Amino acid sequence: MSGSDPLDGDNFDFGEGFDLSQLGKLLAGLTGGAGGAGDPWANAEQIAASVASDGGSEPNLDPIVRMAVEDLARVAELHVRQIDGIRLPSDVTIKAVARSEWVKESFAAYRPFFERFGDAITQANAGMIEQEAAGDPFAAMFGQMFTAMGPMMVAASAGSMIGHLGQRTVGQYDLPVPRTGTTVLVVPTAIDALADEWNVAPDELRLWVLVRELVTHAVVSTPHVARELEALFVDFASGFRPDPQAIGEQIGDITDLSQIQELSQTLGDPEAVLSMMRSPAQDLLIPRLDALIATIFGYVDHVVDDIASMLISSHETIRGHMRERTIDTTPADRFMERLLGLDITEATLDRGAAFIAGVHERAGAEGLERLWTDELDLPTAAEVNAPGLWLARIGLDPDLPAGTTFEIPDDLSGLDDTE
Fold first, then answer.
1. Is the pLDDT of residue 359 over 50?
2. Is residue 335 a part of any domain in this protein?
3. pLDDT in tens, 212-246
4. Is the pLDDT reported for residue 57 higher than 50?
5. Average pLDDT, stretch 151-167?
6. 0.85 surpassed by pTM
7. Are 243 and 265 in contact (CB under 8 A)?
8. What mean pLDDT do residues 43-65 have?
9. What are the distances in angstroms from CA 313 to CA 204, 205, 207, 300?
10. Is 104 part of a structural domain of the chain?
11. How many domains does the structure of the chain reveal?
12. Does a structural domain hold residue 368?
């Protein structure tokens, strides 16, 4: 290494006399000097746009394509509004965008969860440094490194991850993250690329995506559903805490400069960082979150099937490919899922489908309408596994005598016990 390299061993003494005040120079080397490069979030948004557009080489969206999407959007909206129980905002608007524009429009929706994660790192490490550093300069160095790198690392991860999401996404709700406003984004470039890959007509896939996006928007923009989702996501992202045992397993004992460099690579892997910070508090949120996500996916799939089977000849092909795409996620998708506490697997989709089928079989359209009418009507984890429990609680059990009412208990926490 040259003498100017901040990681040059000549600049640091890692023996008994190691001075933690040197950590600033070390961090500058590990982060490429990013600490003084201005607002890390502004930089992250630029990174995201660049990643999504493949370094700025993305062409402008063809106006003819934009108009074709707008025409199909009117067809999709007409059919979605005819579904009983769908509460689509009267001023909803479909906006066809390029990948880089999707990033610009979406960054604000995802940033709060990254910020909560960053806050969790900073707050937790103050305690970890105090508890772990006594008599161990390397533990202290690691704690200070984690704390100092946290904001930069989180912002840089946000830019990279959101940019990669932008490369792949076909719409606004590949992940069911609530958005403000009534505009729904779709990405024709990505849709048409999949249509070519799957050998289906572009207009058919565009229409299918538009129907799915509008139905999902109707659900997740329902005020009490949006509040519940946001609260669960925020609480999960805020719940990360450094796990000393997991950190030790990932990193081991640090005894020389080469291991410091390996540590910097580990900290640059968001998956590794998240695995070192999972906390018991987050585990308590999972049953509620899994139940709500399974219900949303099950309901959306049910409504899309009803509409698309009448309009789209390649519906079965598209549905199969989209299901595989939902399950077979990219690293960026997995990171976002883990950050928010999501685990969207085949079992998740099957669970939601079984619940919706059970409700529809027993209570028909009236049962499905009740899913989104009130926050007290949202099913618990136990109820998603047994639709009859949910129907009984809301008073729609067909086996109960006419006029029977079901008193809602003050404490529903016990219904989250799936055992």
1. yes
2. no
3. 999 999 999 999 999 999 999 999 999 887 666 66
4. yes
5. 84
6. no
7. no
8. 86
9. 8, 10, 11, 19
10. yes
11. 1
12. no
* pLDDT greater than 80 at residue 15: no
pLDDT at residue 187 tops 70: yes
In a domain, 258, yes or no: yes
Determine the residue type at 413.
Answer: S
Residue % of the chain over a pLDDT of 70: 71
C-alpha distances in angstroms, 278 versus 120, 143, 274, 298, 316? 11, 17, 6, 28, 38
Q: Quick one: tokens of 317?
A: 């092909």
User: What's the token pair of residue 244?
Assistant: 């000393």
133, with CB counted inside 10 A (0-12, 13-18, 19+), is: middle
Rounded to 10 degrees, the C-alpha dihedral 324/215/194/179 comes to: -100
Place of tokens 């500058």: 28
Find the domain containing 264 and state its range: 39-281
Over residues 238-252, the pLDDT tens digits come to 988 766 666 666 555
CA distance 319 to 297: 13
Own/partner pairs for 12-18, CB < 8 Å, 24+ apart? Answer: 12/257, 14/255, 14/256, 14/257, 14/260, 18/137, 18/141
